[in-house]
Automatic annotation (TrEMBL):
Keywords: Membrane, Transmembrane, Transmembrane helix
Protein name: Integral membrane protein
Superkingdom assignment: Bacteria
TM spans (from-to): 15-34, 55-74, 80-106, 118-141, 153-170, 177-196
Amino acid sequence: MGHWWLRNIVEPGKLPLLLALAAFVLTFVVTRVITRLIRAGKGPFGNVKAGGLHIHHVVPGVVLTVVGGFGAVASDRHGAGGAIAAVVFGMGAGLVLDEFALILHLDDVYWSEEGRKSVEVVVLTAALGGLLLAGFSPFGVNDLTQQELQNRGSALTTIAMNFLFALIALSKGKARIAVFGAIVPLVALVGAVRLARPDSPWARRFYGRRPRARAKAVLRAYRHDRRWARPRRTFQDLIGGRPDPRSGRLPDRR
């Protein structure tokens, strides 16, 4: 175990990434537990206010992210300073992305249907961090041999092609596949060759005069959403809590 740790984590300089990812996930989990307790009226926690102003946890999250980011840049990644900066950055990122929906909508939508976006972004970020920790590099660089890496033309061509596949997948309305495809090129290729979602820019541009292709895209999207909508919502509710059914601006939750 010690040999594996040194060879796969310490020597490649992945310890800061591991610490940042662990701090990110742990901070998100603790934050969600606290906010759900507050929502249920349990525990000693309450609103954080300064002069009557409600301070959302995205605020200290931004501060921690900035401090950790600059600290990581200024520190040696193999030293203690880099490890501390990674933990601070991970904590800040966890607080910020937990309120990603609030930033996106510029409103307190934490417990609303729109608030599910925060959970989606956190899960996506954690998954990408795990892929990077496992050794995957953006745009297929990890798939190149040492000789190909030394050949700038081959490396740039591979990166450009994988980036193009990810971009096509994104234009087809497959955002999650595009993001994962930036790390795992085969995923981007699958997203690039499959039918676009009917409301995507690709469909509006290329399916306008192809009614059969558009009808097929609509049917496939309907079947996909019908199959995965309920499991996805159940998973999101398990992690982040069930959204508030009330409409309009929601009251402070803390």
